[in-house]
Every structure is written in structure tokens, then in C-alpha cells.
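Hello again,

I reread your note about wanting to compare the complex against the isolated chains. To keep things tidy I'm splitting this into two emails, and this first one only covers the full assembly. Below are the input lines as submitted, including protein chains and any nucleic acid or small-molecule components. They are followed by the predicted structure of everything together. The single-chain runs will come separately.
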Amino acid sequence: MLAIDGWFLIEDGLTYLLGSRCGDCGTIAFPPRPSCGHPRCAGTIPAPVRLSRTGTLWSYTNACYPPPPPFAAAEPYRPVTLAAVELDGLVVLGQVRDLTVADLRVGMTLELTSGPLADGPLIWMWGAPR
Amino acid sequence: MSVVVLGVGLHPWGKWGKPFQEYGVAAARAALADAGLHWTDIQYVVGADTIRNGYPGFVAGATFAQALGWNGASIASCYAACASGAQALDIARARILAGLCDVALVVGADTTPKGFFKPVGGDRPDDRDWLRFRLLGATNPAYFALYARRRMARYGDTPADFAAVKVKNARAGARNPNARYRAEVTTEQVLTSPMVADPLRLMDICATSDGGAAVVLCSPAYARRHGGRQVTIAAVSTVTPTFPQADLDLPMIASETVPQPEHGFKTALIRAAYEEAGIGPEELSLAEVYDLSTALELDWCEDAGLCPRGEAAQLLRSGETALGGKRPVNPSGGLASFGEAIPAQALAQLCELTWQLRGTAGARQVDSARIGLAATQGLFGHGSAIIART
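Full-complex prediction:
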């Protein structure tokens, strides 16, 4: 089960973020938008688009204390690592899988993967390139 | 024509655990006394809303008016995240400038829960604020930490630079009877406080506080009849970002473009205020900026044009932004000393500007203060920049 519908998909073991691309002006957005975000664009219905599966680490941090609900914190709690990754002209946040802040540096390449939230559903995650 | 700040008042910041309206009423009474007016003189009341205190918080203008005793004034309430107080002020200002009233009272107050701010209750998967917690566990400090890490990577700032902001602001806050934290701190204390969101530690991040602030605004003609040294509002900027927004902004999960601080939202907010006031950063005597984290104060210094991009840590080390420096930043002690009481905070900033411009700021007085800037940024494209002058 995916933690949210329409924002990402997993196909043949590969995870893809799903953005939207405006048919009129080409603006790419994540998460997908129901209409174009460009203020001068009347925006036909933007089409879904798969975003790049790798990107450059823009910034990163971790959550040393359990975030409050609706986040489902694992017990015992292990700090969640967060990455902001630049791809396709955007920066997209995500949890980081199997890496801590000590393993990360701004400018490195990360690849999209997925993993479970503590209560089960799958979410996209950033990980080391395979 | 510029509206006049006739009176200001605060309820001290803290974690008092009382209903928010009590802080608002105390602040309102202080502002009315400062203005030399009675509550029944007020023609228009604007309340800045609090979203964590139920229905009375959503209709703050009416809540404060009832608590002070219905006086038949016209009322409004507004919510604009951290800029709520500034938008409430702008609504009152517009009403006065339109000639629809002569004197208005603007009030903001909050009672905050312990710990991280979290989304208001219920399952709301269409709400970005709910989703960033649900999907990522991305608290407010997580975003502040992403910005701080960027400064380290891009400009070579260090955790010790961030700690120095806290040391500076704690020193100012120690001289402010309305501040919640009134003890000076050392760099070592900051650097050994618990890590919350790497690279930010507990003492790098502002607390959530209870507090209340109020401002009495009036027309110049009304002010002339009531005397006193005049502080006027030269600008209130509440512009939205422009597409593509060049920030990774709370509570968004992705940006609209690769962030560029020189085209960022905070820069745009302040530029609009400079344009309205017809001044530039070099004319400022002081600035109150929204230091949700220590590192964020450094961003603000650059966004306000107090120094070139990337040089805010150097500006800090020069002492220019400390009390006694050429252009103090957060002479009140800032959020580092107050913590955040969301709807009251922008108004509290204006209270500080007013005391500084009147020359009545006591032990934290900025020499010959003539023009002050106060700036906030909050969730969902809200922010503000206010310029006040003598």
C-alpha cells in the first residue's frame, strides 16, 4: 500500500516520483497540480510526468526527537533523516533510507527508492545510488 | 499620509498556561494606557487569530472586544500565520487611511502547547501541513535546519556562527522585561545543547510561547489632538511570493524552482516595504527579524540588504548587529529570547520599534533610532515587513 496515491509509483522494483507538466507552458510541478501554477498561464489540465530518479543533494537534516502525529514514529525511535534533492529544476523532500546525516554531503547524488513508514504504508525515499 | 502609532503594550512572553484572551486584554489595556485613551474611544478593533484555541481564536477581534466589554466598535479578525499581526495592522491602517475611522486597536495573543507545533487535529490528506508530518515527519525545525545546512555548504558558516547569534540575542533579551528568556548564554552552552535537527541544537531554535501584544493606531489629525512623540508607519508589506517561488517554503514538500535567496520571498517582502517607505537598508537604525532559528537571522540580514549575500556571519562577528553596534538586529532579544506567540509576534516587533524610536527602550536603547524595520515569514506564502519612523 502506498502512503499517498498519485505522487509516486513503484514499477519493476524502481520508484518514480509523479509530477505534472503543463501542456501549454511546460511548467513541471511536484506534487502534481490540478491546474498550472504559472500566473500567466491559463493551463490546460497538466499531464502526469515521471520525474528523474536521481538528483543532487541540496540540503539535509534529521529529526533527533520523534515528530508528532500524524507521523507514525517507530518504537524504539531512530532519528529520521531528511533530504532535499534537486532534480528537474525543483527541490523535492524525502526521507532517507539506510543513511544518516554523517553519510551525506551537499552536492552528492542520491537515487530514488522506497521504504515503509513505521505503520506500514510505502513512501518514496532517497538512498545511495545503486 | 502615514498612520500614527499612538500606543503600544505587551503581556510578557512565557508559558503561563492561561487563556489567550487574558494576554490580549492585558496588552490592549497597556496599549490604551500608553495612548492615553479609554477602551470606549476605540472605533475599530482588529484581532489577529490563533488557530489552536478553538472558535474564540478564529474570531479574535470579537473575543477581545467582548473581553474588554462590548463597546459597539466595528471589528475584524484575520489569520495569516506568522504575519497575522502585521495583516491585522494593515487592515486597521487601510481603514484609517480610507477615512472610515480615526482610531483603531490591533490585538494578537496566543496560548501554545508544549513541544513541536503540529497540524490542527483530524485526518486531512489534502492539507500540505498535515501531509508533511504524515509522510515525512518534517517539523518546522527540520525546515530551519535545511536552510542552515545550506548556509554551511554555500557560505562556509559554522555551528559556532549560529551559536553567536543566540549569544547576541540572549544578551539583548536579558535587558528586556517582556522577554521569556532573560539569561545570557555562552557559545559553549549553545553548542552543547541537545541536537534537534542537525545542524541545529535546542538553543538554536525558538520556543513556542504564550504572549500578547497590542497597538493603537490613529490618523495624524487624531494624533495631533493627543500629543506625544509621534512614531508613524511608513510601510506595511504583505505581498505574496511570485511564481516560481524561489524558496523551499514551509509546509511544502517541493519547491517551484531551485531556490535562489536573492530572488526569495523574504527579500521580496522587505524590498516592497523599502519601496513604499522610500528608503534603503542604509537608512535603518535597527531591525527586528523573525529569527525562528539562529541561522535564519543570518539569512534575514542578507535579505534585508544589511550586507552582501553570504557575509552575514562576518557582519555578526563585526558586532554591527549587536546592541551598541551600528545597526542592531533584534535589540528586543528576538524570538531567541521571546519564543513565538504567532499572532502576537509581528505586533510585538512593532512595539519594540516604537519604544526604540521614542527613545524609551531603557537598557537596550539603540542610539538615535530614527527608522526601524520589522519582518516576519510564515507558512503558506505569508510574511510581512513593517517600517516605522519618527
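For quick reference: The first strand of chain A starts at residue 8 and ends at 11.

B.
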